[in-house]
Amino acid sequence: MTISMHQFDQAVWKIVSSIPAGQVMGYGEVARAAGFPRHARMVSKAMGRSPDPLPWYRVVRSNRTLAFEVGGRAYNRQKALLEAEGVQVINGKVIPVAVGDTGDLDRLLWGEDDS
DNA sequence: CCCTTGACTATCT
DNA sequence: GAGATAGCCAAGG
Questions:
Q1: Cβ of residue A48 near strand B, that is under 7 Å?
Q2: A64 touches strand B (CB under 7 A)
Q3: Model pTM?
């Protein structure tokens, strides 16, 4: 018989729900962890098919950016949820809690400018 | 069966 | 670092 994507879905749900708060995973990472490399695009569909709410907002692109258009509705929702867990999101880019202070970054995060 | 879509990724310019 | 290009793979029309 055919091995349906059911397996994939279950694996994805399990992995995504296991992502600790304040941490994020890439779509490709999730797919790989689920045992289905190169199925990054399917991860989103699998999450959408989940019967239970998942921390979908902890899943980002491989380059650590949000998958939605900056400023978009879904984007703002994901950004808010992430920041509620201490994860900074600047212009679509996700910054982990343990961010190195380089001064430049400091200014970026605090939105400071010359005076 | 062919073509389009998409919450993607890697590589090159 | 940003934009373009190619590869990827399942689902739906």
A1: yes
A2: no
A3: 0.84
